[in-house]
Design a protein that fits this description.
Layout (H helix, E strand, L loop, with lengths): L5 E3 L1 E3 L2 E3 L6 E6 L4 E7 L3 H20 L2 H17 L1 H12 L3 H25 L4 E4 L2 E9 L2 E5 L5 H14 L3 E5 L6 H12 L7 E3 L4 H10 L3 E7 L2 H11 L5 E5 L5 E4 L5 H13 L11 E5 H16 L19 H16 L3 E4 L19 E4 L6 H4 L6 E7 L2 H9 L3 E2 L1 E5 L3 H10 L4 E4 L14 E2 L2 E2 L4 H7 L1 E9 L1
Parallel strand pairs: 1-5, 8-9, 8-11, 9-10, 11-12, 13-14, 13-19, 14-17, 16-17, 19-20
Antiparallel strand pairs: 2-3, 4-5, 6-7, 7-23, 12-22, 15-16, 18-21
This protein binds nicotinamide-adenine-dinucleotide (NAD).
The site of nicotinamide-adenine-dinucleotide (NAD) has 30 residues, from helix 7 and helix 8.
Length: about 475
């Protein structure tokens, strides 16, 4: 490691603060395997300092008008927009995703999150319920200090998806980003400071989940916890937060079905199913990692699908032409490769990919993996039902609607699905029968920030987006006034 590696401390109460322990964690760039920064390895002492700073700052922030807070959020959006290229490059370097994806999706959506929730709080309407001799007024107040814990796959995008509504509603925040991808969160604090967000309203604590994350969820003065991450971690977070009666939002894992009927628009479906399977190297909770194809077109579809997947070039995330970058870490690639070995043990055939590409220079140390398509697996086997969270799609035939629904619902997860058909009646029937929080028909990951986002079963509890986020980040009070 070179001596020039940047140290990234916590951001507490408007100051840059190293961890109380003095310890640092290496942040490794997945495209090269080299250390690109060192982050504060925080523990309960740092979390407590951040929570106290948030508590001190929150009342004055909450006392501002909705309009005044919205103006600060708009300035944060402007600041992110002014740094779009810089942030896209940073996210790509830290996460491994293609810079083109960060520039087209991650950073623009982070900007949109702030603009959207600035507008949402400006335009929020609260109900009143008149009754004989009285009127009920529904009011919303901030929860107080909110703890935000976020994963490594869409680092800035998912952090801002929580931070923007939390701040809009007058809360103060302590955020704990993934230790694997901490850098854009630090840049966000720079932008917030430039935008005039008062010190202490947004605090950032870096570190490991079982140390800093756990301390944040446990802290008695953190009144709401919004968590996005894996299901196993989510279960732990729920067990910690529930006896303390905290508000809790859990956005967890997925094993989402892409359901292809024989009457689909062939080209559009192939394009959509490839994107659903492999966008962001398959590291999106919504990725369609189980491709269910009607038997009458199964073999032809899978052949065309595998050919398109094999043509996806894996390469330097910093190259604007790259469409598939590096997996987030060497350990994660090992896990994905373990699933590919399991797939073969379970009787599957790897139709394409699954190998480490031969890349030049410093990229030889990166955690790259060619996107893989696996056929011939029983739909209930582990490879086809457990979340891999990488560039692996398993394909399975079905005969009719009933079987497609049974296969799609036959996993512990229930986040999302996409259905590809020209038959409108069938689209409605299947969408209704799917046990998931979100269904796309003839598209995938088409997002409108007003709509509810979240899953059922092991994919989580609660919804984010639009008024659901505003509700989560506030306490609702009824005032009944008699005349
Ligand atoms: P993870 O659960 O390992 O970590 C998520 C965050 O939780 C990290 O910041 C981590 O440090 C922290 N953490 C770990 N242990 C903790 C503890 N005991 N207490 C508090 N915090 C703790 O998940 P990951 O590997 O970073 O992300 C991948 C997972 O996230 C996948 O399962 C994916 O499906 C899921 N995900 C879900 C959504 C969604 O909206 N449903 C979106 C993106 C990712």
């Amino acid at each position: 490691m070179s001596d020039t590696v940047r140290e990234v401390p916590n951001r507490i109460g408007g100051r840059r603060v190293p961890a109380a322990s003095g310890a640092w964690l290496d942040d490794v760039g997945p495209a090269t395997g080299e250390v690109i920064a060192r982050i504060a390895r925080s523990d309960a002492r740092d979390v407590d300092a951040a929570v106290q700073a948030a508590r001190a700052a929150q009342p004055a922030w909450a006392a501002l008008s909705d309009e005044a807070r919205a103006r600060v959020l708009d300035r944060v959006a402007d600041g992110l927009e002014a740094r779009l290229d810089e942030l896209a490059a940073l996210e790509s370097r830290d996460q491994g995703k293609p810079v083109s994806l960060a520039r087209e999706v991650d950073i623009p959506r982070a900007i949109a999150n702030f603009r959207f929730f600035a507008g949402a709080v400006r335009h929020q309407e609260l109900p009143s319920h008149p009754m004989p001799g009285a009127v009920n007024l529904t009011q919303r107040s901030p929860v107080g200090v909110c703890g935000l814990v976020t994963p490594w796959n869409l680092p800035l995008y998912l952090l801002t998806w929580k931070a923007a509504p939390a701040l809009a509603m007058g809360n103060a925040v302590v955020a704990k980003p993934s230790e694997l991808t901490p850098l854009t969160a630090d840049a966000l604090v720079d932008v917030m400071e430039e935008a005039g967000l008062p010190p202490g309203v947004f605090n950032l604590v870096h570190g490991l989940g079982p140390e800093a994350g756990q301390a944040l969820v446990e802290h008695p003065d953190v009144k709401a916890v919004s968590f996005t991450g894996g299901t196993v971690t989510g279960r732990r977070v729920a067990a910690t937060a529930a006896p303390r009666f905290k508000k809790l939002s859990l956005e967890l894992g997925g094993k989402n079905a892409t359901v292809v009927f024989d009457d689909c628009d062939w080209e559009a479906t192939l394009d959509g199913a490839v994107r659903a399977g492999f966008a962001n190297q398959g590291e999106i909770c919504l990725c369609g990692s189980r491709l269910l194809v009607q038997r009458s077109v199964h073999d032809r579809f899978v052949e065309a699908y595998a050919a398109r997947v094999a043509a996806l070039t894996v390469g330097d995330p910093a190259d604007p032409a790259t469409r598939v970058g590096a997996l987030v870490s060497a350990a994660h690639r090992d896990k994905v490769e373990g699933y590919l070995r399991l797939a073969v043990d379970e009787g599957g055939t790897v139709r394409c990919g699954g190998t480490r590409p031969d890349l030049p220079g410093s990229l030889a140390g990166g955690s790259f993996l060619a996107p893989a398509v696996v056929s011939g697996l029983a739909p209930a086997c582990r490879t086809a039902t457990e979340e891999i969270f990488g560039p692996v799609v398993t394909v399975h035939p079905f005969d009719d609607e009933e079987e497609a629904i049974a296969l799609a619902n036959g996993v512990a997860y229930g986040l999302s699905a996409s259905v590809w058909t020209r038959d409108l009646g069938r689209a409605h029937r299947v969408a209704r029968a799917l046990d998931v929080g979100m269904v796309w028909v003839n598209t995938w990951l088409l997002r409108d920030l007003r709509v509810p986002f979240g899953g059922v079963k092991d994919s989580g509890v609660g919804r984010e987006g639009g008024r659901w986020s505003l509700e989560f980040f506030s306490e609702t009070k009824n005032v009944c006034i008699a005349w």
